[in-house]
Amino acid sequence: MSNKLFENANTALHGLLKDGMTIMAGGFGLCGIPEHCILAVRDSGVKNLTVISNNCGVDDFGLGIMLQTRQIRKMISSYVGENKTFEKQYLDGELELELNPQGTLAERIRAGGAGIPAFYTKTAYGTVLSEGKETREFDGEPYVMEFGLFADLAIVKAWKADKAGNLVYRKTARNFNPIMATAARITVAEVEEIVEVGELAAEDIHTPGIFVQRLFKGGAYEKRIERRTTREVAA
């Protein structure tokens, strides 16, 4: 087992970043995002990036901070509604967007990680999202062909890891992180706790360490809530 442990995000990403690369970034909204990796990518100054993520954070947090520095050339996402910077750059023609239904995006990533180059789905048939795509009928029903997604680099956030890189996600942070970890040439994971090999029960492991090449322990996670919604308690 080679040493996968690094001191921080900067050392874990050293030598991996280059202009024009494709990066998958885990998380859903602001839940389970790789906060430290995103900061390190921004601070590296790499540009013309294609980023695959469920969304692009908010204006001043998550992937949104990389829009402020105009490092992202293209987003492959399923939801972009909480980011004014994203909206402006897209409408001004500065940012390319490939919009996907959320389930289709998840399956494209899963397929990429499983070595499946393309698949058919009913979702988006007959809408603008299917324009220019191959369609086909199966059992009399129309389907749209979608391509699997595979990245140069995946940055993911987990709760626990052992020193072999086996990952455990906590609650809803187990969103796009597990599938993205399988769908890139190199996966860098940031975690809240690292334990010795053997301390994680095999049945509790969500991402096997074979998919993780680099690992570091992060601290002082902000874990913002994207949109807090509450209701009054009935009297």
Termini separation: 59 Å
**N-to-C SSE series?**
EHEHEHEHEHEEEEEHEE
The description of the largest β-sheet is: 9 strands, mixed
Helical content stands at 10-25%
Can you identify the CATH superfamily? Glutaconate Coenzyme A-transferase
Please name the CATH topology: Glutaconate Coenzyme A-transferase
> Segments where pLDDT lies below 50 for 5+ residues?
none
Helical/strand content category: alpha/beta
Give the overall silhouette.
globular
How many DSSP E strands? 12
Notes on the protein architecture:
- Helix content is 20%, strand content 28%.
- The chain is of the alpha/beta class.
What's this entry about, in short?
With 235 residues, the chain is α/β, with parallel strands linked by helices. It has six helices and twelve strands.
SSE topology sketch:
Layout: E1 5-6, H1 9-13, E2 22-25, H2 35-44, E3 49-52, H3 64-68, E4 72-77, H4 84-91, E5 96-99, H5 102-114, E6 118-121, E7 135-138, E8 141-147, E9 151-162, E10 167-168, H6 177-182, E11 184-195, E12 214-217
Parallel strand pairs: 1-12, 2-3, 2-9, 3-4, 4-5, 9-11, 11-12
Antiparallel strand pairs: 6-8, 7-8, 9-10
Keywords for this entry:
9-stranded mixed β-sheet, Glutaconate Coenzyme A-transferase, 235 residues, 3-stranded antiparallel β-sheet
